[in-house]
Amino acid sequence: MPRKILVPFDGSEPAELALKWALLDAHDHGFPIKVMYVVDRSLDLLTGFAPRETVLKELKERGEKILEEAEQIAGELGVDVKIEKKVCVGIPWREIVREAEDDEEINLIVMGSHGRTGPEHAILGSVAENVIRHSPVNVLVVKREKRVEDSVEESSRR
Question: What Pfam families does the annotation carry (predicted)?
Answer without folding.
Answer: Usp (PF00582)
